[in-house]
Design brief:
Chain A has 359 residues and is α+β, with helices and mostly antiparallel strands. Helix content of chain A is 24%, strand content 35%. The longest helix of chain A is centred in the middle third of the chain and has 18 residues. Chain A starts with a strand and ends in an 8-residue tail after the last strand. The chains are: A alpha+beta (359), B mainly alpha (282).
């Protein structure tokens, strides 16, 4: 009864858009596809919807060969990152469109559409033209349209990415509400995003995708705490996790002339070169710390992102306040060493603060 | 600054309006003149400058037996041929354009753009190149000097315009709209008719307008491919010329021949300013 994909492969040009993607999605769950732009998220969603046919592989749903079912009979719903609506129809007609297509009777259409518009906070907008709505409202209309269908598979392709910050926060909350109440046990929600925070907040199963390949599958918390590889650690953190090439030798971490005592969770590693992962939030300004040079300081919202260098090592740290720095300023920082991840030289997680290891 | 701009703007519009309207005014006054008034120099104000006569207009509807030229039949021939050919061109052209815009064709080295260019290339050739093949072709299938033959030829001439405009237009309609329609339960035909087409009305109007204009004003093929049975308006108007040029009926026929285009332009202008695609995708 699940949505099962086996070895999906799609390579329309030189690059893989999907490279041996397999998954098994169960009904009643939310799945988040996390990946950077061009990682194949949209391709994967379009393949599930039936808009693209993979070169190889199989998709099964409810024990049927899904690839043999045309798009219009698959009963999926999809929200695009651009706000796609039918411009020649008003809000009500837009939301009613899939139901009319199914020849549902008018009274029922009326009830369902009004209920759906209410659930996305667009009561009273029925007669408006799509062009008269703001971006956020347009996206709500497409969300409402995808919800009325009661589709068994709901595909959301970066639905929040084109909205401004405040709307994004607001709509993300609403998504969570809608998912928690309105979702039937019969449907599968697949949400794609580039934003790790969104993936963590939705708190479903996360699939980390990169260059068309699935890197790791697991609960959001697990991905965050024990990223399988360096790549996963980079993708699942924003700003990306800092990678330090360091040497562990006789219980010391050594890099760029810095020496730090090894924390407990790394003490059983054999002496070797490691890639150490440090989150931007685990680096703080400290008068007694190590000296780095400021390469760039960007203020984002209420925090400051500092890009630092020392020798060949580059770091990003986030400071929870707005501060001004000049380029080439010297700053002193310290690492929250108990939160450091160690990846071996081929990039596989050797030890995490949460006890995970894939070596 | 603002005042100067306004002044220049309105001066320009005024000059332009005079420039555009003057020939019509000239034709209108001339159509009410007779031989003496036309040859009496430039005069514009009826009853003051010259005595208005209806002779120029009457000739157009009188039968040749009564000394008229009877443009009524050619007029309706022209209307029929232009409208039918435009309609068929728009229907076929729109469907082809949609296919060229949305699907990928490959036949050896021939791809979508080559096919689009093939259509447009019909218009790049000078018409004289096409005239002999058309003549022979219509002769072979016995359609010379017939309305149907003209319609066939005009479809060949007009469809490239429709394809050209509509390919460009469909390329601007986001593909995601079609995809959403498919996801919402439309098969590809329903997606086209229920969603893509209603959003392409401005493009259809522009394409239709160009087809009607180019069909209506064609003289060359109407002249070459017809003899006695069928005559179209442009040919008939030219045939008015005899030893004495009848400026009055020439002017009158010129006015009635542009009338449909003026009407079309007014309708279309209102519609085009209303229709837009914004909101389909931001």
């Amino acid at each position: 009864m699940n949505l099962i994909a086996e070895n999906l492969l799609y390579k329309p040009d030189e690059q893989f858009h999907l490279n041996e993607v397999s998954f098994n999605f169960k009904k009643g769950n939310i799945y988040t596809i996390l990946g950077r732009t061009l990682s194949g998220k949209t391709t994967l969603l379009k393949t599930i919807a039936g808009l693209l046919t993979p070169d190889k592989g199989a998709i099964q749903f409810e024990d049927k060969d899904f690839l043999k079912v045309p798009v219009w009979e698959r009963n999926v719903a999809m929200v695009y990152q651009q706000f796609i609506n039918y411009p020649h129809l008003n809000v009500f007609e837009n939301v009613a469109f899939p139901l009319k297509q199914r020849k549902v009777d008018n009274q029922e259409i009326n009830d369902v559409v009004l209920k759906s518009l209410k659930s996305v906070g667009l009561e009273g907008y029925e007669k408006r033209k799509i062009q008269e709505l703001s971006g956020g409202q347009q996206q709500r209309v497409s969300l409402a349209r995808s919800l009325v269908k009661n589709a068994k598979i709901l595909l959301l392709d970066e639905p929040l990415v084109n909205l401004d910050y405040k709307l994004r926060e607001q709509l993300r909350e609403e998504f969570k509400n809608i998912f928690s109440q309105g979702l039937s046990e019969e449907s599968i929600v697949i949400f794609s995003t580039t934003d790790p925070r969104e993936a963590m907040e939705l708190n479903g199963e996360v699939i980390v995708l990169d260059e068309g390949k699935v890197l790791q599958v697991g609960p959001a918390k697990e991905i965050f705490e024990n990223p399988k590889t360096l790549k996963v650690a980079e993708i699942s953190n924003d700003p990306p996790m800092n990678i330090l090439t360091a040497n562990i030798e006789s219980n010391k971490i050594k890099f760029e002339g810095i020496e730090i005592d090894i924390p407990n969770h790394l003490s059983n590693l054999k002496d070797n070169n490691f890639n150490l992962g440090v989150r931007a939030s685990d680096i703080e300004l400290n008068e007694k710390g190590f000296e780095f040079e400021v390469e760039l300081a960007e203020i984002s919202g209420s925090e400051t992102l500092l890009h630092l260098t020392r020798g060949d090592t580059k770091l990003i740290t986030s400071i929870e306040e707005v501060m001004n720095f000049n380029i080439h300023d010297k700053v002193k920082i310290s690492f929250n060493i108990t939160k450091v991840y160690a990846f071996n030289e081929s990039g596989i997680l050797a030890s995490s603060p949460f006890g995970g290891s894939y070596v | 600054m603002g005042k100067l701009y306004k002044f220049l703007k309105y001066s320009f519009i005024t000059i332009w309006t005079v420039f555009v309207v003057a020939p019509f005014l000239w034709a209108l006054t001339t159509s009410f003149k007779d031989f003496n008034s036309v040859n009496g120099g430039a005069t514009y104000i009826p009853w003051v400058d010259f005595e208005p006569k209806l002779e120029g207009w009457k000739v157009l509807i009188k039968s040749p037996a009564n000394g008229g030229v009877d443009i009524i039949e050619p007029y309706f021939n022209s209307l029929f041929v232009t409208c039918t050919a435009s309609l068929i061109s728009i229907v076929l052209g729109t469907l082809s354009a949609y296919a060229l815009s949305r699907f990928t064709f490959k036949a050896g080295f021939v791809k979508n753009n080559d096919i689009t260019f093939f259509f447009i290339s019909q218009r790049i050739m000078p018409p004289i190149v096409l005239s002999i093949p058309f003549f022979l072709f219509l002769g072979a299938i016995n359609l010379l000097d017939s309305l149907i033959g003209l319609i066939v030829v005009y479809i060949v001439l007009l469809m490239p315009i429709a394809v050209w405009i509509m390919v460009d237009f469909f390329n601007k309609v986001p593909r995601e709209i079609d995809e959403t329609a498919l996801i919402d339960g439309c098969n590809p035909y329903q997606a086209f008719f229920k969603v893509v087409l209603p959003n392409s009305v401005p493009g259809l109007i522009v394409a239709g307008m160009f087809c009607i204009i180019f069909g209506w004003i064609d003289f060359f093929f109407a002249f070459i491919l017809t003899f006695t049975e069928v005559q179209l308006l442009p040919v008939k108007i030219v045939a008015l010329n005899s030893s004495i040029t009848p400026w009055w009926s020439l002017s009158a026929s010129a006015l009635v021949s542009v009338a449909p285009l003026i009407i079309v332009a007014f309708i279309v202008e209102r519609y085009l300013s209303k229709g837009n695609l914004s909101g389909a995708i931001k």
